[in-house]
C-alpha cells in the first residue's frame, strides 16, 4: 500500500481514540472535510472502510481494528528507534508513558519521577492513574510503555519486570477504638463502617474474597473511586479504609491517622507488578526508568511472617519477589 504521508496515521489514531471526526479535526487543527478526505484516501488504498458511523460519532470496523493496532505498534517501534538514536548522544530527551495504581501515584511514583527528572530534566512523563484492567488494556494497545499495578490478572502479553508482595493495612482516625492495637483482624474491622474503593480495585477484591466464607460482613458507609477522598473522610469519622502497604506512607506521616497492619492470618496479600508488553523492547528512557523503579521496589516488599503463606488466587500474577529478564 502506498503511504501518502506518515501524518495520516496520527490522524486515524486520533479519530479512533476520540470517536469523532469533527472533534479529532479540532484537536489536530485541520478541517473536518480535509480529515475525512485523508481517511477516504486510506480506505481506498486498503479496499475496505476503516470507520463506520453511529449516532454519536464513528467507530472502527473490523478492518479498522486491524489497521489501528498496526499503526500503534509502528508508532511504538518508531519511538524506540528515536530512543536508540538519542542514546548515541546520551539520554537527553524522550517520553515515558506509565499507567499506575492510585495506591502508588502520590507516594512511590511521585518520588521516582522527581528523582529521574532531576538527572534527566528533558525527559517527559505521561502518567495515567487507573485500575489494573484499564492499565492492561492501554498496555496492549501500545498507549503506554510501563505498568505499575496491584494484583493484575494473568495476561499472556504482560511481562513482569519485577513483582513484590504487598500486604493490606487498615487506616483509621488516630482516636478510633482499633487504633490501640498494633495488628487488627478483618473481622474486627467489620464491626465498624468502612470507606471502600469501587469493586474493580484489587484491595477490595482481596478483602471481599477473604470474608466470603466468614460470618463477618463489611458495612460500607462510603464507596468512591478516589483514595484521597476516602482518606479525608477517615480523618473526620470512625470509618475504616484499607490500602496496600506501599501506598500508606502519606497517612503514616500524618498524626490524624493510625495505620495498622492486618493480621497475616487474614491472608490479605497480593502482588505489586512492574511490567511491560511482552516481546516489545522499551525505549531507552522507559527502560532506564524501569531499572530505577525496580531497584527501589526491592526495598518496598511487604511479605507475611507466616512461613507457609501463599495466596490462593491462581488467576493473579505471583507476588514472590522476582526480577525478570528482558522479554
From TrEMBL:
<feature type="domain" description="HTH lysR-type">
    <location>
        <begin position="11"/>
        <end position="61"/>
    </location>
</feature>
<dbReference type="GO" id="GO:0003677">
    <property type="term" value="F:DNA binding"/>
</dbReference>
<protein>
    <submittedName>
        <fullName>DNA-binding transcriptional LysR family regulator</fullName>
    </submittedName>
</protein>
<dbReference type="GO" id="GO:0005829">
    <property type="term" value="C:cytosol"/>
</dbReference>
<comment type="similarity">
    <text>Belongs to the LysR transcriptional regulatory family.</text>
</comment>
<dbReference type="InterPro" id="IPR005119">
    <property type="entry name" value="LysR_subst-bd"/>
</dbReference>
<dbReference type="InterPro" id="IPR036388">
    <property type="entry name" value="WH-like_DNA-bd_sf"/>
</dbReference>
<dbReference type="GO" id="GO:0003700">
    <property type="term" value="F:DNA-binding transcription factor activity"/>
</dbReference>
<dbReference type="InterPro" id="IPR050950">
    <property type="entry name" value="HTH-type_LysR_regulators"/>
</dbReference>
<keyword id="KW-0804">Transcription</keyword>
<dbReference type="InterPro" id="IPR036390">
    <property type="entry name" value="WH_DNA-bd_sf"/>
</dbReference>
<dbReference type="Pfam" id="PF00126">
    <property type="entry name" value="HTH_1"/>
</dbReference>
<dbReference type="Pfam" id="PF03466">
    <property type="entry name" value="LysR_substrate"/>
</dbReference>
<dbReference type="InterPro" id="IPR000847">
    <property type="entry name" value="LysR_HTH_N"/>
</dbReference>
<keyword id="KW-0805">Transcription regulation</keyword>
<keyword id="KW-0238">DNA-binding</keyword>
Amino acid at each position: 500500500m502506498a503511504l501518502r504521508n506518515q501524518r495520516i496515521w496520527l490522524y486515524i489514531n486520533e479519530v479512533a481514540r476520540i470517536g469523532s471526526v469533527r472533534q479529532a479535526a479540532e484537536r489536530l487543527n485541520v478541517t473536518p472535510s480535509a480529515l475525512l478526505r485523508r481517511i477516504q484516501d486510506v480506505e481506498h488504498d486498503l479496499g475496505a472502510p476503516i470507520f463506520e458511523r453511529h449516532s454519536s460519532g464513528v467507530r472502527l470496523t473490523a478492518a479498522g481494528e486491524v489497521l489501528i493496532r498496526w499503526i500503534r505498534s509502528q508508532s511504538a517501534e518508531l519511538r524506540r528507534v528515536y530512543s536508540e538514536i538519542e542514546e548515541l548522544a546520551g539520554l537527553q530527551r524522550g517520553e515515558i508513558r506509565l499507567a499506575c495504581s492510585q495506591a502508588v501515584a502520590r507516594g512511590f511514583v511521585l518520588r521516582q519521577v522527581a528523582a529521574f527528572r532531576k538527572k534527566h530534566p528533558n525527559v517527559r512523563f505521561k502518567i495515567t492513574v487507573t485500575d489494573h484492567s484499564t492499565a492492561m488494556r492501554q498496555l496492549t494497545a501500545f498507549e503506554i510503555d510501563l505498568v505499575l499495578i496491584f494484583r493484575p490478572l494473568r495476561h499472556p502479553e504482560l511481562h513482569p519486570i519485577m513483582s513484590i508482595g504487598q500486604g493490606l493495612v487498615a487506616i483509621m482516625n488516630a482516636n478510633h477504638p482499633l487504633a490501640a492495637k498494633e495488628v487488627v483482624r478483618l473481622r474486627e474491622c467489620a464491626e465498624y463502617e468502612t470507606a471502600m474503593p469501587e469493586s474493580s480495585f484489587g484491595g477490595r477484591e482481596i478483602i471481599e474474597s477473604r470474608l466470603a466464607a466468614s460470618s463477618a460482613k463489611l458495612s460500607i458507609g462510603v464507596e468512591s473511586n478516589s483514595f484521597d477522598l476516602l482518606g479525608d473522610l477517615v480523618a473526620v469519622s470512625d470509618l475504616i479504609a484499607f490500602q496496600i502497604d506501599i501506598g500508606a506512607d502519606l497517612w503514616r506521616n500524618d498524626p490524624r491517622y493510625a495505620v495498622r497492619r492486618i493480621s497475616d492470618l487474614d491472608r490479605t496479600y497480593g502482588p505489586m507488578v512492574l511490567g511491560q508488553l511482552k516481546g516489545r523492547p522499551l525505549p531507552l528512557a522507559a527502560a532506564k526508568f524501569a531499572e530505577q523503579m525496580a531497584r527501589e521496589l526491592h526495598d518496598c516488599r511487604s511479605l507475611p511472617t507466616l512461613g507457609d503463606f501463599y495466596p490462593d488466587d491462581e488467576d493473579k500474577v505471583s507476588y514472590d519477589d522476582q526480577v525478570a529478564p528482558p522479554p
